[in-house]
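Deliverable D4.2, example record:
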Amino acid sequence: MELEGEVLAEVVKRLRRAEGQIGGVIRMIEDGRDCADVLTQLAAVSRAIDRAGFKIVATGLRECVSSPGKASPSEDQLEKLFLSLA
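Output generated by the structure prediction step:
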């Protein structure tokens, strides 16, 4: 699957943000920061990664639906993709 320019830029932006947040979480742990603060940041990282994954899945589904010549994924395959992000 190839992502279009705008979608690709958005996914990369989200993943770079998550990358920075992970670095921050590592520093927080190394500095002995409060557990609640660390968990809050981990939750933010998780959401950023989830959103990137959902954007990729949504784009892939749009491509499958709009490209009648391609074999469409089965319902089981689609479910498996969604569950992999859960």
